[in-house]
Each structure stands twice: as C-alpha cells, then as structure tokens.
Design a protein that fits this description.
The complex is a heterodimer. Chain A is α+β, with helices and mostly antiparallel strands. Chain A has 20 helices and 29 strands. Chain A is elongated. By secondary structure, chain B is an alpha/beta fold. Chain B folds into four domains: about 20-60 and about 465-510, no CATH class; about 65-125 and about 140-335 and about 395-460, Zn peptidases (Aminopeptidase, 3-Layer(aba) Sandwich); about 335-390, no CATH class; about 515-710, no CATH class. Chain B is built from 25 helices and eleven strands. Chain B has helices at about 1-10, 20-30, 35-55, 75-90, 100-115, 185-200, 225-235, 245-255, 310-325, 340-360, 370-390, 395-400, 420-445, 465-480, 480-490, 505-510, 515-540, 545-570, 580-600, 605-620, 625-630, 630-650, 650-660, 670-680, 685-705; strands at about 55-60, 120-125, 155-160, 170-180, 210-220, 280-285, 295-300, 330, 405-415, 455-460, 465. Chain B has an eight-stranded mixed beta sheet with strand order 2-3-5-4-6-9-7-8, sandwiched between helices. Chain B has a three-stranded antiparallel beta sheet with strand order 1-11-10. In chain B, helix 4 (about 75-90) packs across helix 6 (about 185-200) and helix 17 (about 515-540) packs antiparallel against helix 18 (about 545-570). The radius of gyration of chain B is 30 Å and the shape is globular. The chains are: A alpha+beta, B alpha/beta. The interface between A and B is large, with 65 and 54 residues. Chain B: InterPro entries: Gaa1. Chain B: Pfam families: Gaa1. Chain B: This is Glycosylphosphatidylinositol anchor attachment 1 protein. Chain B: One of its GO terms (cellular component) is GPI-anchor transamidase complex. Chain B: Keywords: Membrane, Transmembrane, Transmembrane helix.
C-alpha cells in the first residue's frame, strides 16, 4: 500500500484556492526556500516496513499521526514506540472524545479553547454594527507536540516559524465614521482600521534579523489570505515605529496597503481558521452579499504568543479573529424619509440584516453568546419622556412601555459601571446561543416604539487630514484636530483646569516620492501660529531615502485641554519616479497611508460590573482591557506627474530620428573628404543633358545666375544624381500605381 | 535657427568657400527668396485657418472606463417630487423678509441632512479681483485681500457631502448649483430641483466610488466669486488668519446663528469646513430662461482662464448623454454675426465645390463639407478662439481649472417656462438623468482625466480641431518671420561696393555692431511697453474717476513716456544706410519671439495676434521711400500699411471689433479701459501680450513707417 503526498504549489504569490490545504500547510512556512516545491514526499507502509526519507522525518511523523487510526491494523508489526503512540492517539480520538473535546472540561486546564461571540449595536444614524469575535487559545504545552485540536495549525506554524510575538492583520473596506459611530469605545479604538490592508508584527528575534523575518512573514500571509501582502516586503513599504504607534517592547514593523481591495477571497481563508468555519455557529450568519453591501467591513486577525519559551515546547498562542461590519437594515419605511417616521430607528432582526438565522452554536465552541449593546442615554431619555418609575434597566428592556422591544428575552443583562456621569456608558444584553437549535433558530429582533436619539461618545479630538495646494510641484499635508466636545468641555475623564494637558500621539508614514520637509512643520493652535516647541513634547523623524525607505514621523503633542482646534502642516515636494516604478493606474495618483492618532492619556475601557460570566467571555474581557484611544485619518491621494504611457511608440520614433540624424551627420563629418570629392568631380566632368538641365533648374531655384557650364554642377552633382532622379521617379510611379489599383 | 543662418551667411561671404551643407544651402535659398516664401507662407497660414472647420474631426470618447450611458438611469419620480417640494419650500418663503436668505439656507440644509448626508455652511467674503502686477501666473493666492471687509459682503454657501459607502474617500466629484438665497428666481429654483433630485438619488445608491460634493453657491456676489472662494478654502485654507473670526463675528453680530439645529437626532450641521478627497471633476449646473427656443437646449461652457480647456472627454460624455440619451440639443457658443457675413457663405460654397470636385476624382478624398455646416463651424470656431484668447473664464467652472480640476458649466434652458407640473417634472427628469449619467461615468473613472485632448478648439459640440492641426496654420503664419529678418539683416550688412578699398577693412570689423543701435531702440520701446502695462495699477488708485478719465490719463501718460524716451535715446548720428532694415529685422525677431512665447501660454491669443502683427511687420517700409518711387505698387503698399497700422493699434482694433459685432452706435472711450480692466482682473495673459508684445511692436512698425531715410 502506498501513500503519496505531493506538495502543492508554493504560496509566494497570492493565489486563491477554493480550499485550504490542511495536510500540507507545512509548505506555507517555506515560501522563500527554493527547490522544495517540486519535492514529493514518498513513503511506504507495506507489511509493517516503514521507511521514511530522513529529511522528512517530521512530516512523516505528522502524517502517520493523522492517518493513524485508519492504518492501525496495518501497522501491527511496526516498531513499538510508534505503535504505542498510535494506540494512545486512537483512544484519544475515538468518536466520543472527538465530540466532547470541544465542549466542556476534558482533562485539564491546559486545553485549547474556542469562543464565539457577536455584538450587535444600533448606531445613531440608523445603522447597525455587528461585531463578530472569535477567540481561539492554544496553551503552551509539550504534550500535543505540534498538533492542535481546535487551533488552526497554519497560524501556530506561522508563529513558530517567524517567532511572532504579536501580530495584527486587518482587511478593511469603507471608512469608519468617527463622528457618528463613535471614537472612544473599545470597538472603534481596536477595530476601526484604515482602508485596505494594515499589518504590524512584533518579532522575538535579534534586531538585525527582524527585516528578514518580516519579509518572510508577509509572503506567508500573502499566500494564506490571498492578498498582495507580499508588496509589504519591499523596504519602501514598511517602517519601524518606536513609541507612537503602540507601546510594545520588542521589534515592531508596520506596513499598510491602502489600495488593496477586500473581498470574499480574503474572507474565505479567514473563515477556514475557525473550527466550524461558517458551517455552524455564529459564523453561519456571514452571508457574503449582505456583509459586503455594508458601509464598513473590517476583518481582523490579532494574535499574541508567549514566544519566550524553551525551544522544545510549543508556545501558547491566543488568536483573536474579529469581523466588524456596519450595515443598513432595510426598513420598509425607508422610502418615506421625509415623513414623520424618519425619526424612528429602523427595526431589524438578524434575519433581516443578514438574511440568515443562527441555528445553534458551533459545537466546538466553549461559549457562544450574542450581545446587544444599547446606550444608556436612551433609557434616561426614556425616563424623562415616559416617567416610567424606578424600574431596573433589566426589566425596562423587555418589559412593555419602554422605547424598544426585543423579540427574545436576554439571558443576562450587564450594565456598565457608571463612574463618571458622562454619556456613552451602555447596557449589554446577553443571549446564550446554545439554547437554540435547528428547529428553533436564534433570530434576535429589535423593534423601536418611539423615536430615540443619542450620540456616540467621541474621542477628545476629532482628527482629519487633507492635502493643501495644487499643481504637480509641491503641496502640504495638514492634520486638523477639532475638539469633539466644544460645547460641554467638562465631559471626558479628564478634569479641566489650568495647566491640564491633552496628549496626542501622531504617527505618520509617507512614501518616499512625497518628499516631506520636516523643518516646515507648523502648528496652529486655536487659529494662531505657535512655536513648535511649546506643544511638541517629543518628536522623532526618520526622513525618507529615495527608493529605500519611507519617511516616518512620530510626534507627541501636548495641547491644552480647552483647545478648540489645532492644525499641523507639513510641506512636501512631489518627486519623480522612474518609468518602471509607476504602479498600474498611475494617473489616479499616489496614496499617503493613514496617519495614526492616539491619545495616551485616554483609555477606551468599559467598566463592567464584575461577574463570572464576564470573566469567561473573551469579548467582554477584551473590552475591559485598558487600551488607549486610537483613530486613523483619511487616506490621501496625491496626483503626481506621470508620463504619457500611451505613447511609447512616439517616444521611440522621435528618439530614433534624433539618433539617426546625429549619427548620420557624425559619420558624414568623419568620413567625407571634400577635397578628394572635388577633384574626383572635376575629373569626371562630362555629363548628360538631363544633368545640365537639372543644375540649371537648381541654380534658378537658388536665385543665382546660371554659372558657366564648367563650374556649376560641382555642388549639385552629389545632391541630385541621375540614378537618384530615376529612383525617385520610379518610386513616384509605383506610388501612383498603388494608389490607383489598391482602391 | 535664425542665428545659425546668420552665421552661415556671414561665413558664406569669403571669396573661396568650402561647399556648405545641403541644409544650409536650403536656408540660403529660402532667405534669398524671402519675399516669395513669406507671401506663400502667410497666404497658406490664413487659408489653413479658414480650412479648420473642414479639418475638424468628430469627437469620440477616448477613455474606455467612462462607459457613458451603459447603465440605465435609476432616477425615479419620487426623487423629483421631493426635489419639487424643496423648490416650493424655497420659493414660498417671503422674499421680502430680511432673513429670507438665512431661512432658505436652513430649509435647504434641513432637506440635505434628512438625506443623511453631511451638511456644512461655508462663509466667505466676496472681494473684488484686484490688479496686482506681480501676481500674473501665480497660483491662486490665499493671502490676497482676505482681511478687511465689511460684514455686508459676506456670503454663505451650503455644502452637502455624500460619503461613498464602500469607498476609501480619496476622490470626489463636485456638483455646483449657483443660487441666490436673497432672491426668488424660478429658473434658479429649477436648477436647485435638478441638483437635489440627483443628489438625493446619489445618497441612496451603492455604486458610488467617489464622494459627491454638492455646492449650492451663494451667487449674490457673482457665481464665480463664491465658487472660487470655496475652492480656495478647500485647497489653501488659512489656519492663522483672522478671516474666519471675522466671518463668525459678523454673523453673530447679525444674530444669525446657522449652526444650531434643534432636533438632536439629526446629523449636526457644522459651520466647520468639510472636505472630501482630491477632486476628479466638477459640473456646474445652471438653468436659464431663453425665449424663443424650439426645444430644450443645453449649452456647454468650457473655457477657463487663459484659454485652458477641460479634458475633451468630459465634454464628449456630456454631449453623448445629452444627445443620445436625453434628447437635448447641445450648443456651444458661437458668433451669430459671422452667420450674416456674405463672404463666409461664398467661401463655404467654394470649399464645398472643391470638395465635391475632389470627391469625384477620387472617392477617398472626402473633405467636402456642406456650406451651412461650414459657416456654423466657422462661427463656433471664431467664438472658441475669441473666448480662449480673451483668457477670461466663461463661468464658475473656471475657478476649478485653477486647481487642475476638469470642470464645465452646463446651462440648460427649457423651451418654455413650464407652468404645467407634469411638463416641468419631465424637464427635471431629463436634466437630472443627464447629470446622473455624467456623474456615473466620472465615477467609473479609475484614473483622473488624461486620455483625451486638453488643447483643442471646438467647431461644434461634436467636432473639434486638435492642436496638431491648428498649429499648422500658426506655424505657417510665423515661419516667414525669421527668414525675412535674416534676409533684411543680410541686405543691411552687405559689404559696400567700395569695400575692396583697404581703408574700409577697419569698418568691416565693426560691421556686426551696426544693429546695436537698432537693438537699443527695440529694447527701449519694449521697456516702454512694460511701463505702459504697469500704469493702470497706479491709475486705478485714483479715486472718484470714470473709466473714460482713466483711459485718457493712461493714454496721455503713455504718449508722454514715449516722447521722453524718444528724446533721451535719440541718437545724434545721422541716418545711415541700412538703418531701417536693421530696425525692421530686429522688430520682426522680437515679434517672432513674442508670438512663439505667447503660443505656449495661450495659443488663441498668439493666433489672433499673428493675424494682425505678421502682415504689419512684414509690410512695414518707410513711407518716404515709397513716396519717392511713386507707382501703383508703392501706392498700394502705402495704403495697406496705413490701414494695418490703424487696425493694429489696440484701442482702434477693439472699437472696430466691437462695432462690427454690435454696431457703431454708442461708443465710449471708457469701454476700452473697462475691457482691459477685466483682462487684468482675471489675470489674463492676453493683457501682458498686448502690453509687452503687441503695443511695442506696433510702435516699432510706426517708427519704421515714419523712418527718415
């Protein structure tokens, strides 16, 4: 019996295969190694003789493990350790164990976990935010070797191979609307991402190897996610922020691809990392047309590993996969916008948003919860309007008489701890999905009874970035900060007093062909030009090197708390590119990636009343982490000078003409001997009547009297010879004939 | 080229010479026959200009990505009824009330925010274009006269921005509708209806790849000023200036508070400036009432400052959609008076006949064009040339071109003033569908407009003459100039017959410097030209005076300056042989250089200038010489010279042109001043051309004519 496993094509280029290779995912780890693409692994299992090729011992081991149950009978007479291993494995992977392994306690706390959660949140502008959160944890262990029950193997191999300590990869389509959808809560700080692809990673390797590891990582991810992340390999595309982007000890690399289009081909590999894929559980909601129809779509992958473990053990990895979509529920009354109903929030249900329902949880998930988040200000308004009495929030939600109605009763109500009386605190309703099944699918609906208004909590400053100037020569980048709460300056967790400072971190990467003059940095605070030293607390600039590295600016601003607006301007020159450096569609312009604005003194954290169920939920514990408030600015489009690519032919012809003229005259100068020629001409003086006539004509043309027949044609002779005239006539005749007979 | 030839000519004089190269010989032949060459070339140049309507090609959509009309329109009657409701709300407000303008803006903003789009007000201060001699060709300046202004001259634009749902917001398309919030005008309300119908549709569609900006420009201080100031604030914002404070304080002082909107659920209407990305294209939409039309027409205005044109593809898309989809008649501006000229019709007939004859000889030669087409084409071409030459934008779209944004003005005029609601709705539907189609096409565009022509003249909405064709006429017209200059120079510096005398050898050495005094003269006159063109800046500072007074002061000062210069630089030496030839040669060189430079800046100006200056310079010859040898030929030459130098005098030319177009009835000396004022107010390079090329050369021609030799 022969088993033959042939390795697939190397995954250096983004390629979109319908199915991800499960067995040979090993090859993802060697994208830059040549030669092994054609290697086929042969080994035979026949009559108990097992001959693994020495170079592939590990792989063989892996494969034997995987297929062991099937060949258990065959390998009866194999060497003992293997047989024992297989026996053990067989027992472990017996059908019962398989079924149970995902759900509850099996053996110990060192167990891989998978959680799935979904957060739904109505947004102030009649849209709905859906935030899927899938969390897989692989604890550090020796027992399993390189194998996992639930955790995606591709990721764990990635982490081990490239010694990734922390990594975040996001694919985003559309823009997060900070003004309407909020800029302070954990979702907007963590999950609002710039359009396109953003990747950053921290490596656990010596500094001089980081770039090499980064390059390999980008190529692997490119293959894994069917995206052109491999373009981040070039040193002009990534940078190494020191402190402004994220305070992470270690070797951080950061790169973005603003123009990357995001589509299902990126989603499918992402779903493949989930144990239930999109066949069961919450991911079953992901109906492609409806999630890509929305206003914002961001799929994100965030992993951390405790990489500093001894080499022989496998490091523990925590993988967080989130998908954030903003959708417009199509309410039936949307057509009559101007009627009185326009104030109503649209009522929706899961099936109306996604077109699907949840029929039970993913059996491998330890928890499967759907949360509905509502702003608390709705209730307070409700109280004002209805004078509902001192009802608890929990009863208010689904008891009659409140502003909305849920189609299902929540299993748990979690309230955000109200430390300071600012708006933005919220209430979470939790629903256990495991209670529902195929016959009784989970379909949460929300119905509004009264028009309600609220606004999301804003980051302390709203940042926008734009280009100034016109023309192809120079311009300026401006970053404008506007105080989000100019009206009620008392809000915010900071106390307002004299000397209070608002810290703002700005991290800006600029491609090299935008030549920024960092000395031209200007700061305007409250419409007044101010010296830079007054506000810039710390600044670090690494200027761009042509065709080598992008320019990077990290800046820590300290603005007064009561600032109304602040503006930064930086002037730049537009560079010229070499002809082969132009990207496709060069005439569209060139992107400047988003700047990252973060507020180190503000933390987007939800203080939830501590509860056992919260501690178990990765989503909520993530919300309770202290992360600084972060936002991204717009991507900018800079028109640069572009050559006319459609006319290479003209260029070629013109160049050739110039060259021909140049070489012709050069040759003429070099090899002609005028004296010789004249002597030669004088020697052969006799000529026919035609030549005399021609020379006469020429002399006439030149306006000089006909010279004596002795001298005249000395000039004209080389110009117009008899043969030449004959040739010209011949060509003319041919041309005329052609003209007549071709038509 | 001319220099090389001169050198070669100089080298050709020694008794024994090495045989010159063919190209040099060709040059010598041409120079020695400069009279014949110049006559042939000039005639050919003028003939080529009149042939342009025949050589015009049909327009075609060059950029495949545009795909105009490939999607069916999504505009529904619902959008139109909403838009009509808005128009009614706007017009029903009492126009007499003091705050009607504010109330109208509020109504408009409310409608826009109900659509769920971002709405903002843009306050601006209208200021007159001020002449500043150093600001020609400079980029639109932000610091220029931003401060100081009474609160009365502030306007407020309303801006709505649709953020494309799935796009990255790097690009934007701009729709502009001028609207006077103070007045009730049915046609402006109609244009608001069309704009709103399109905008409300676009706020719902899912195919947007670029953000849409709708600018309702406050046109009480002119359409251009409001659009230009919005664009300036968009591209060159001022962070430090007190201008925004000024505006705010003005509005607070007048108890106008626009930004407070009471209902909390609505999107907030901010007075802060809102931006989208880089502008891809802009459409200015206007509705006008023109009486006596047979069908609904669409006029396209494209000329921006200094004869810059938007990409031809933009016009093509509009033309294609208007004609083939919405059945509107598309017009571009033309000189109606040309249609009444008899000789143009005769010329058209002749060309038609020639074309027919040629066609009968070989059916491949199909350059014939019917006479009415030819005359229409000529009228349009003349208007196109004139508008470009003037260098004044023909509408608010001109402001966009200053920021390298392709823009055109679409002026739609209904057949009649619609009273019937159904007919009116149908008109709105057609116009809005046109705008929707154009927006959709531009939205399809991945890159910016670059595929089609930027340098062209229109001979009809669907026909154009590209730069490769119209340059030929100009090149033929100016080609004789260097030849004639060279031949004159050769004539002037011919060795005297007595030069064999060894004593004369010394003189030969100095011969090349003979032209220096002429050069000095040419230079002084050009310096005077600079002085004359700077004068208006100072004259305009004189308070309380009429344009007529201004022009008289200007005229007298200029003449005085010329006299002073003449007296200062008058050479005491007696006139010598070849002096006027040298002067003429240098004048022609100066004209040649000036025309070539101008053809790069603004081709149309150079073309029109060449039509006048080239014959004037070539024909100029001292009258004394002609009078001395009195014959029919010289008499004719005298007459032509006098006529041309009269026409070439800028004020005379202006009044003649005006008289031809509008009749010689009411002439005012001040008109010329106003015309020039408009030129420099719009930073037109034509003003520089008139002051620094045309006028000095005219003076030099006069000097040649009056030369005492």
């Amino acid at each position: 019996m022969t088993i033959q496993i042939r390795k697939g094509k190397r995954a250096t280029e983004p390629q979109c295969l319908g199915s991800q290779r499960s067995l040979n995912s090993e090859d993802l780890l060697f994208p830059n190694q040549t030669g092994d693409s054609k290697a086929a692994v042969y080994f035979q299992l026949s009559n108990g003789r097992f001959r693994p090729p020495p170079a592939h011992r590990l792989i063989a081991h892996h494969i034997v493990d995987t297929i062991a149950p099937i060949f258990f009978r065959v390998s009866r007479t194999m060497w003992l350790p293997l047989r024992l291993t297989l026996l053990l494995l067989f027992l472990l992977l017996s059908p019962r164990a398989l079924l149970r392994s995902g759900s509850a306690a099996v053996v110990s706390g060192e167990e891989e976990e998978f959680h799935e959660e979904l957060l739904l949140k109505p947004l102030p502008d009649r849209k709905v935010l859906a935030h899927f959160h899938f969390h897989s944890i692989a604890p550090p262990s020796k027992s399993n070797g390189r194998h996992h029950h639930l955790f995606p193997k591709a990721i764990s191999q990635l982490v081990q191979k490239f010694r990734v300590k922390e990594m975040e990869l996001s694919f985003t389509q559309g823009r997060w609307n900070y003004e309407r959808w909020g800029g302070f809560d954990p979702i907007s700080s963590n999950n609002a991402k710039p359009p396109g692809v953003e990747l950053w990673a921290v490596f656990d390797v010596p500094e001089d190897q980081v770039d090499a590891y980064w390059k390999n990582l980008t190529n692997s991810l490119s293959g894994l996610f069917c995206a052109s992340i491999n373009f981040l390999e070039s040193s002009t595309m990534y940078s190494a922020p020191k402190w402004s982007f994220r305070i992470t000890p270690g070797r951080l690399r950061y790169g973005t691809l603003p123009r990357e289009a995001v589509c299902t081909e990126n989603l499918t590999p992402w779903l493949k990392l989930l144990p239930c894929r999109d066949k069961a559980g919450l991911a079953a909601l992901l109906d492609r047309p409806s999630i890509y129809k929305g206003f914002y779509h961001s799929q994100r992958l965030y992993l951390t590993s405790n990489a500093s473990v001894p080499a022989e053990t496998v490091s523990g990895i925590s993988l967080e996969q989130t998908l954030t979509v903003v959708l417009q529920p199509n309410s039936p009354s949307s057509s009559s916008i101007h009627s009185g109903e326009s104030n109503f929030q649209p009522s929706w249900s899961l099936s109306s948003i996604f077109g699907r329902k949840i029929s039970g949880k993913c059996v491998l998930a330890q928890s499967s919860i759907v949360y509905l988040q509502l702003e608390k200000s709705i209730f307070s308004e409700q109280k004002d309007n209805m004078d509902n009495g001192p009802n608890s929030l929990a009863s208010e939600g689904f008891a009659g008489g409140s502003g909305f109605e849920m189609s299902l009763d929540p299993d748990i109500v979690i309230e955000e701890e109200n430390q300071s009386q600012h708006k933005g605190s919220s209430v979470l309703y939790g629903f256990w999905v495991e209670k529902y099944n195929e016959s009784q699918p989970f379909d949460l609906g929300l119905k509004w009874k009264y028009p309600v208004f609220w606004s999301s909590r804003q980051a302390p400053l709203h940042a926008s970035r734009f280009l100034m100037g016109s023309g192809n020569e120079r311009g300026a980048i401006a970053i404008l900060f506007k105080s989000a709460n100019s009206a009620d300056s008392s809000s915010g967790s900071r106390h307002v007093s004299d000397g209070c400072e608002l810290q703002v971190d700005v991290f800006q990467v600029v491609p090299w062909y935008i030549k920024v003059y960092y000395h031209s940095l200007q700061i305007f605070v409250d419409d007044e030009a101010k010296p830079i030293g007054d506000f810039v607390h710390k600044i670090q600039v690494s200027p761009s090197k042509d065709k080598t590295s992008p320019g990077m600016m990290e800046m820590l601003l300290k603005l007064p708390c009561d600032v109304r607006s602040a503006a930064l301007t930086l002037e730049f020159d537009k560079g010229f590119l070499h002809i082969d450096e132009y990207p496709p569609d060069a005439n569209q312009g060139y992107d400047i990636p988003s700047a990252v604005i973060s507020f180190p003194s503000f933390h987007s954290v939800m203080h939830l009343l501590s509860n056992d169920s919260i501690r178990k939920s990765p989503l909520l514990s993530r919300f309770q982490e202290k992360n600084r408030v972060q936002s991204y600015t717009e991507v900018l489009l800079v028109p640069l000078t572009t050559p006319d690519f459609s006319m290479p032919y003209n260029v070629i012809t013109i160049t050739c003409t110039v060259f021909a003229l140049f070489f012709g005259s050069l040759l003429n100068v070099l090899r002609r001997r005028v004296g010789e020629e004249e002597r030669y001409l004088k020697a052969g003086k006799k000529k026919g009547w035609l030549r005399v006539l021609l020379s006469r004509l020429l002399a006439k043309l030149r306006g000089k009297p006909m010279e004596e027949p002795d001298q005249p044609s000395s000039e004209s002779a080389p110009l117009i010879g008899k043969k030449l005239v004959l040739k010209v006539i011949l060509v003319a005749v041919l041309a005329v004939a052609w003209q007549f007979y071709s038509t | 080229m001319a220099k090389v030839e001169k050198k070669e000519v100089a080298a050709a004089t020694p008794p024994w010479k090495p045989k010159p190269r063919p190209i040099v010989r060709l040059g010598i032949v041409l120079i020695s026959h400069s009279l014949l060459v110049s006559v042939v070339c000039c005639t050919a140049g003028i003939v080529a200009l009149f042939l342009l309507p025949m050589l015009a090609k049909n327009t075609y959509i060059s950029e495949n990505a545009l795909m105009p009309g490939s999607a069916s329109s999504m505009l529904s009657n619902h959008d139109i009824s909403e838009a009509e409701r808005l128009a009614k709300d706007l017009t029903s407000l009492n126009s007499g009330a003091a705050d009607a303008g504010i109330e109208r803006r509020r109504v408009l903003a409310k409608y826009l925010s109900d659509l769920g789009v971002e709405v903002g007000y843009h306050k601006f201060q209208s200021h007159q274009n001020q002449f500043h001699p150093l600001h020609f060709f400079s980029s639109p300046d932000s610091g220029l006269s931003r401060e100081n202004g009474s609160c009365s001259s502030y306007g407020i634009n309303v801006v709505g921005i649709i953020r494309a749902p799935q796009a990255d917001g790097k690009e934007a398309i701009v729709l502009v509708t001028p609207f006077n919030f103070r007045k009730n005008s049915s046609s402006e309300a109609l244009s608001i209806s069309i704009g709103y119908a399109v905008f409300s549709l676009l706020s719902r569609v899912s195919w947007l790849a670029k953000d849409i900006i709708w600018l309702v420009a406050d046109s009480q201080y002119g359409e251009y000023a409001s659009v230009a100031s919005w664009l300036r604030d968009y591209h060159i914002p001022v962070f430090s200036a007190s201008s925004s404070h000024n505006a705010d304080s003005c509005f607070e002082g007048n108890n106008i508070n626009l930004s407070r909107e009471e209902s909390p659920g609505r999107t907030e209407i901010s007075s802060g400036f809102r931006r989208a990305g880089t502008m891809a294209a802009a459409l200015v939409l206007k509705v006008t009432d023109v009486k006596g039309q047979l069908e609904d027409t669409l006029s396209v205005y494209a000329e921006a400052s200094n004869g810059q044109m938007p990409n031809l593809d933009l016009i093509n898309v509009v033309n294609y959609l208007a004609v083939h989809r919405q059945g509107l008649r598309v017009k571009v501006e033309k000189f109606l008076s040309v249609l009444t000229w008899e000789w143009i019709w005769v010329l058209g007939d002749t060309l038609n006949f020639i074309g027919k004859v040629a066609g009968s000889l070989n059916p491949e030669w199909k350059f014939g064009i019917s006479t009415p087409d030819y005359v229409e084409g000529t009228a349009t071409l003349a208007s196109s040339l004139y508008r470009q030459a003037l260098g004044i934008p023909t509408g608010p779209h001109g402001a966009f071109r200053d920021f390298q944004v392709d823009a055109i003005t679409l002026e739609i005029s209904p057949k009649v003033v619609y009273t019937n609601q159904g007919r009116r709705n149908e008109f709105i539907l057609r116009s809005a569908r046109l705008i929707e189609g154009v927006v959709r096409s531009v939205n399809n565009l991945l890159e910016k407009f670059h595929q089609s022509f930027f340098l062209y003249l229109l001979t009809s909405p669907a026909k154009f003459v590209s730069v490769g064709v119209y340059m030929i006429g100009f090149a033929l017209l100016v080609a004789p100039l260097p030849l004639v200059a060279a031949s004159l120079y050769v004539d002037a510096n011919k060795p005297e017959p007595s030069s064999q005398d060894p004593k004369q050898k010394l003189q030969i050495n100095f011969k090349p410097w003979k032209w220096l005094s002429a050069a000095k003269q040419v230079f002084t006159v050009h310096a005077w030209g600079v002085f004359v063109s700077l004068l208006p800046y100072f004259i305009s500072q004189i308070p309380n005076s009429t344009p007529a007074a201004h022009s008289i002061i200007w005229f007298s000062l200029s003449t005085f300056g010329l006299l002073v210069l003449y007296l200062i630089t008058k050479s005491p030496s007696k006139p010598q042989k070849g002096k006027w030839e040298n002067l003429k040669s240098l004048t022609i060189s100066a004209v040649f250089i000036g025309l070539l430079l101008m053809s790069v800046v603004n081709f149309a100006t150079a073309q029109i200038g060449a039509l006048v200056l080239v014959p004037a310079c070539l024909l100029a010859q001292p009258l004394k010489l002609d009078i001395r040898t009195a014959s029919l030929k010289t008499f004719l030459r005298i007459a032509t010279n006098v006529f041309i130098s009269f026409v070439a005098f800028p004020p005379a030319g202006f009044f003649i042109l005006k008289g031809v177009n509008e009749g010689f009835g009411n002439m005012d000396v001040g008109e010329f001043w106003t015309w020039l004022e408009s030129l420099w107010a719009w930073n037109s390079a034509t003003y520089i051309y008139i002051g620094m090329v045309h006028l000095p050369c005219w003076v030099l021609c006069l000097q040649i004519l009056l030369h005492s030799c």
